[in-house]
Probable methionine--tRNA ligase, mitochondrial (Sarocladium strictum), 645 residues
Amino acid sequence: MRAASLPALRSLRCLRASTRRSSWHHLRCPARSEAVRHWYSSDSTSESGSSNSKPYYVTTPIFYVNAAPHIGHLYSMVVADVFKRWQQLKGVEAYLCTGTDEHGMKIQRAAEKAEVPAKQLCDENSAKFRDLAQAASIDNDFFIRTTDEDHKAAVGQFWLRLKHTVPEDFGIYKGKHQGWYCVSDECFYPEDVVQASIEPQTGKKIMISSETQNQVEWMEEETWFFPLTKYKQRLLDFYDANPDWITPRSRLHEVRNWVENNLEDLSVTRPVSRLTWGIRDPEDHTQTIYVWVDALINYMTKAGYGSKWHTSKEDTGIWPADMHVVGKDIIRFHAIYWPALLMALDMPLPKKILCHPHWTMSGRKMSKSIGNVVDPILAIERWGIDPLRYFLVRNGRSGTYAKDMEYSNQLMEAVYAKELQANIGNLFQRIARPKKAKWSTYEACRAYRDGKFELVTASEDDLAPLHKALSTTPPAVQTAMDELNTAEAIDVIFTLLKEANRAVALIKPWELANTCATDPSNESARAELNRAIFYFTESIRIAGILLQPIMPGKMDQLLESLGVAKDRRAFQHAVLGADDSYGLDQATLVERGATRKHPVPTETLFPPKAGIDDDQPGFSRKKSQGNLMYNTVKNLDAWEGPLEK
């Protein structure tokens, strides 16, 4: 996206000439009543509605660059990426935005402490998040930095419209502010959520936020305010009209309770005398725009706001966002401040917020001081990105996003061994890559195409349960994914794979292959073999298509090995018999093995991994008698549901 031009920004500033505050009548003034009623409409369709024909747009939070990436950052990226890829799998044009938040007091103080320019600190740390996105196979279309010029221009335009195009009682105003401010959280806290505490290192009495346990300081300063309290009823009406706006619903209940009981007008600038590292008010150079106002606008910057469009009356492109993916610690900013700011400018609201929980280790919040922080880069090196992506999103069960999730190398290894290796990996290896060329997936598909055998019709058929699973899996996966229930989608897919493995053990295709080898003229045995191989291979193909959003690299390897064409890997092809052109005979597999990206005859989908040691999160190995040994959780079958505490 191109940045807005300077003349465009200047022309926006000229709005003062025709839309000064003095020109706005009070909301109770009859002369303005009709216009005000239109502006203040709480119709939910006008707030978050948008044409269904627009592309799908999903965002991650932009990550603060005062520290290195952790597993929570990776999780947000992966969740957003999975849902973008899911939309693309269905044939929907989709976009993903991620990036870094680079302004504010924490950055300013960190740069001062490191004795480096703030921009240099941001450049170095932003690169780490960009590298993480690349390492994690994140298919982002935009990587925004709040220090980008196009974003600064967008913030400037948004800010000036708040000043000059909103009815007086609902627009920003200047006043004195005093209260408890938290540098770590970049926000003020009401008196009733502040309490006294003792700093362990010094024994000094301090004041902290009861919500985050971070220290707060008493501040008194002149700033600009956004009249958040004026939007109270409109916010409540919107929540009531859109009860599923936040997943899980429990977060919406928390947000609604906060709006009802704790809402205060929001200080939206900081004095330049205290905060220099940020975007200045274009008209008041004594004030720096509040970092959260700055940060939230990023979602619109990459949707073209300020460069391609300026009001909701224009073509807003991919805006509004179809989904914001955020952590539970920042839900208030996204579910209260952000919609109120958008309401002020009569902009469409995001359609959905997915609020995910945090990751813990041994039931404890990850902390550098405790030493239980998982380095995502090391975890990727240890497990490979696709197995790690799978592990992370298998926890996304719609009803339990509210519960913190447990990260453990032992659980990770158990999932790798018992689900990826023993299930899909085992089925793929046995059917698509048998040790000897006993059958051909291509011949099986060709036999189906040529009508050499019939599909299952009788319930007593050994393949009947698998036939049913193949029919019910795709629609069940679609329902789960559209409901943001990645864990349920995975459960459905792996139920199909388990049924396929059960059928393989029951039918024993290798015995049928031996019969065919002994008696090549036995057409009945050949048809029975091809029929079984067709069903088993279809199970692999359909599962591979459906798992692409979660494990794109591994599923590309799987589908390539099956000979599935690139243009036959969409959701519409995840139907029994929908693709009759794939499959490779064993001779071709061996021949192609030397030149293909994934060497077919030898490489397995999920190769063995060395043992682990939870004392070294992410990348560690447990040695026993000089050898790397497995330390697998044996009782994974007894575990039910997502990995939560």
